[in-house]
Design brief:
475 residues; alpha/beta; 16 helices
């Protein structure tokens, strides 16, 4: 039996290929109408086929459809090939068609001015109409294809419910009775130590085998259904589940003070909270990542002479490499190597991990100057480019300190929902932390950021960061 675990990528490619082909057909149809609308103005083409075969039109026909697909990707339409509502599909396609129409008109058609507004309006309407109706029609068919496969149970989304008490059985009952297009198959229940276990014919997974069982069973989603509503216990469970990089959801009546920082989603008619996704639209996620990649590439390219100068200054000021790496914990608790210009003397942590302070004797003179203007952070744009980090996001910490933070503030686990950032709301409002208590205080700002995460908030944080850098307000 096929499951979205194996067909999710195929379904996404169905949409991409269909959009590419319908975009090409729509633009070809538009150019036919375009020829007849402009025919009386004699642009030098004696026939339709000469017009369509001109080098200018051939280049446009090759370039425009892939660019359309790029806009569709930015819209977030391909992020989740399943769980699409008809309304969502309609509105996303509509707005994407409008954006593509405006871009094509401004870039390619602005020179086709005839002095008659009616002709310009007709071209815009034909272009928009062909783009929207052809694209929406093929998307509708592909989505219906998936719905029929789910209804016939040829495809299933495998769910593992974390919990083996009466609470978990109630959640399972709600999921099985709810009428939705996508069928969720409950693959089993996970025993949580300390709960009043239920013994029935359902498949039970020991908590110690959760990770391996989730992989072996091909689980697509995890649903938290613990017997206890204790926040600390929930956070402990999340710290185990995040590294699986599988969507984790929970009923809102199981959660409390952190629900405002989580994105609400609807599963099978029941409101569940998505614990693994930020409170951003799919379009915003894609735009944020695109800006990260483009901006980081430009920084690395344009500031390469500055990188060279800083590397020489660091090397000449003290022994050791110009750039050093350190293991930090990133999205879904995945370790990665963060890069910085070395601002401390070599072997500064030979006695173990330590936090820096304002008058830290381990910091070199050139390091103190770099930290003041945050120049030591510049190599992290490479981390952003390769996907370890974002330009704006919670500050990544080392596992050594994370364990101490979680002891005082279990909700820190929520920070692992998103990529860590070069700059953050905590960094611009609080600054560097010299002890664990200060790190806990700074975490409050990260939670505020998660609850209000948006492109506009990122822009505000960047403005504050630029002000901090130019004012030399770093530590």
């Amino acid at each position: 039996m096929n499951t979205p675990g194996t067909s999710k990528t195929k379904q996404r490619w169905r949409y991409v290929v269909a959009d590419l082909l319908t975009g090409a057909v729509a633009f070809w149809v538009f150019n036919i109408v375009r020829y007849y609308l402009l025919k009386e103005f004699n642009y030098g083409y004696s026939s339709l086929w000469i017009f369509l075969g001109s080098s200018k039109l051939v280049i446009e026909q090759c370039v425009v459809p892939p660019c359309m697909v790029g806009i569709y990707w930015l819209s977030g339409y391909y992020n989740e090939p399943f769980n699409k509502s008809r309304l969502q599909e309609f509105t996303t396609t509509l707005f994407s068609a409008i954006i593509n129409t405006v871009i094509i008109y401004l870039v390619l058609l602005i020179n086709d001015q005839t002095g008659r507004r009616t002709i310009n309006y007709e071209m815009i309407l034909v272009l928009f109409g062909s783009l929207f109706f052809l694209t929406y029609f093929t998307r509708y068919l592909i989505t219906d294809f998936a719905i029929q496969h789910f209804r016939k149970e040829l495809w299933q989304i495998k769910v593992l419910i974390v919990g083996n008490s009466k609470v978990s059985r109630k959640v399972a009952h709600k999921l099985s009775k709810a009428e939705r297009n996508i069928k969720y198959h409950i693959a089993g229940f996970v025993e949580i130590p300390g709960e009043n276990q239920v013994h029935d014919r359902q498949q039970i997974v020991p908590f110690k085998k959760l990770i391996s069982s989730a992989k072996d069973l091909g689980i697509n989603q995890l649903i938290l259904a613990p017997e206890s509503h204790d926040d600390k216990k929930v956070m402990e469970l999340l710290s185990v589940l995040f590294p699986l990089e599988i969507p984790v959801k929970i009923s809102p009546d199981t959660f409390s003070y952190v629900t405002s920082a989580i994105r609400m989603k609807d599963i099978y008619g029941e409101p569940f909270i998505d614990l693994t996704g930020p409170s951003m639209s799919e379009a915003s996620k894609n735009i944020k990542r695109s800006v990260d990649v483009l901006f980081s590439f430009l920084v690395l390219l344009i500031l390469s002479p500055l990188y060279a100068v800083l590397a020489i200054l660091v090397k000449s000021s003290s022994k050791g490499p110009a750039i050093y790496s350190q293991v930090r914990i990133g999205k879904h608790q995945k370790p990665f190597s963060i890069y910085k210009f070395r601002s401390m003397y070599e072997e500064a942590e030979e006695d173990g991990p330590q936090l820096s302070s304002e008058n830290d004797a381990r910091i070199t003179p050139i390091g103190k100057w770099m930290r003041k203007y945050r120049l030591d952070e510049l190599p992290q744009f490479w981390n952003v480019l390769i996907g370890d980090m974002s330009i704006v996001g919670p500050r990544p910490e080392r596992e050594f300190f994370i364990k101490q933070i979680v002891e005082k503030a279990p909700y820190y686990t929520l920070v692992c929902q998103v990529r860590p950032g070069i700059t953050s709301w905590g960094m611009v409002k609080y600054g560097y932390a010299s002890n664990v208590n200060q790190m806990v205080e700074r975490t409050q700002y990260d939670l505020i950021y998660l609850a209000n995460m948006s492109l506009s908030v990122d822009c505000k944080i960047l403005i504050y960061t630029i002000k901090t850098v130019l004012g030399g307000e770093g530590v």
